[in-house]
Amino acid sequence: MDSNKLKVGITQGDINSTSYEIMIKTFQESLASEMCIPVIYGSPKVAAYYRKALNITTFSFNTVASASEMQDHKSNIVNVLDDDVKVELGKSTQMAGESALISIDKACADIESGITNALIVNPINTKNTAEFNLTDQFDFVKKRTNTSNSITVWVNDALKVCSLTGPTSLLDAAKKVTASNILTTLRTLNQSLIADFGIDKPKIAVLGLNPNLANATELTREEKNEIAPAIESANNENIMAMGPYDAETIFGTDLFTKFDAVLAMYYDQGMVPFRALSYDDGVSYMAGANFICVAPMQDVDYENAGLDKANPCAFQKALHLVCKIGRCRNMHAELTADVLKTHNISE
C-alpha cells in the first residue's frame, strides 16, 4: 500500500436514497480508486441490493473486515450495520436514520485513530435523525470529533462561499454579526485558503448585513460598528479582506470572480446565490479541522432512488476536492517546515 496516498473514509448516507447508486457509478470508473484509497462505511448487503436494482454486474466493492485492512487500487467497503438492515427505496425510515449515524460515527472513530485521514460525508435526512437534533451531516461530525471551531465553506470550480452563521433565523443571525466573530471566521477562512487550496495571498470579499449598500450614502449600524472594524483588524493581520459589499453587487455581476472567497453574514445570503450558480456540483468543506472533511451538496433524492437517474457529479467533485486539499496540505507542510535543525551548544 502506498503510505503517501490519501486514505478516505466515506459514509453511506441514507440507505433509502441515491447515495449507493452515486458511489457505485463513481467507483465503476477505475481512476476513482487510483486517486486515493477509499473505504465506505456501510453494508455489502445494501451495496449488493443496489447493484441488483441498477442491473450492474461488472462491478462490486472489495469487502474488508475493518478499515485498517483497506487495499490500494480497490474500492473498499467495511460492514458497520447488522445483517437485518432493510432497504425501503425512497422512504424516510428510522432505520435509515440510525444507519446513517452509525456510519458517520464509525468513520469519525477511524479518523480520530489515524486509520483514515480524510472523510466524505454523504447526505442524510435530518427528519429521520431529528432525535439527535441535527442540522446537517457536518453537525454530527463536529460534535463527534470536537471540531466545533471549524467553519463550512461551499466550494465549486469558480467560487468559495462561507457564511458567518448557520441556518438560523435572521434575528438570531443578526445577533451574531460581531467584529469578534467576523475576525475569527476570517482568520480560519484565510488560513484554509492558503494551506488547503494553495492560494498564496487570498482575497476575501466580506458582505454587509443590510441590503443596497452600493447606493447608501453612509454605512448602516452593523456595517459601521462591527463589519468594517473587523475588516480593518483583519487587514492589520495581513488578511486581504475587503468590503463590506452587498450581495447584489458581488453575485449580480462578475465581481465575485475577482476574489478567492466570499464571506456572507447569514446563511441564505450566501447559500442562495451559490446554489443558483452551482446546483449539481457544489461541495461543502469543513475548514479549520485537523483532518479533511467534505460533503457533496446534494439531497437524499428519494424520488430517484434505485431508478438509475442519480447524478454523481457532486460526489465526484467531493472526491476530487479531498485529493486536491490533501496535496495542498502536504505541499504547505513542506514549504513551512523548519528544515534547519536546532542544536544546543554547551561549553
Task: Please tell me about this protein's structure.
- The protein is of the alpha/beta class and 347 residues long.
- It contains eleven helices and twelve strands.
- The protein has helices at residues 19-27, 32-35, 44-53, 94-113, 137-145, 170-175, 179-195, 221-236, 247-252, 267-277, 313-336, and strands at 7-11, 37-42, 62-64, 76-79, 118-120, 151-155, 160-163, 203-207, 240-245, 261-264, 283-287, 292-296.
- A twelve-stranded mixed β-sheet has the order 3-4-2-1-5-12-11-6-7-10-8-9, with helices on both faces.
- Strand 8 (203-207), helix 8 (221-236) and strand 9 form a beta-alpha-beta unit.
- Helix 7 crosses helix 8 (221-236).
- The longest helix has 24 residues, at 313-336.
- The protein is globular.
Oligomer: single chain
Low-confidence blocks of residues: none
Return the string of H and E elements.
EHHEHEEHEHEEHHEHEHEHEEH
Category by helix and strand content: alpha/beta
Strand order of the largest sheet: 3-4-2-1-5-12-11-6-7-10-8-9
Total helical segments: 11
Strand content: 15-25%
Round the Cα radius of gyration to an integer and report it.
22 Å
- Please report the distance between the alpha carbons of the first and last residues: 48 Å
Query: Outline, from the CA principal axes?
Result: globular
Number of DSSP strand runs: 12
Percent range for helical residues?
25-40%
Quickly describe the structure.
With 347 residues, this protein is α/β, with parallel strands linked by helices. It has helices spanning 19-27, 32-35, 44-53, 94-113, 137-145, 170-175, 179-195, 221-236, 247-252, 267-277, 313-336, and strands spanning 7-11, 37-42, 62-64, 76-79, 118-120, 151-155, 160-163, 203-207, 240-245, 261-264, 283-287, 292-296. The model has no long low-confidence stretch (mean pLDDT 90).
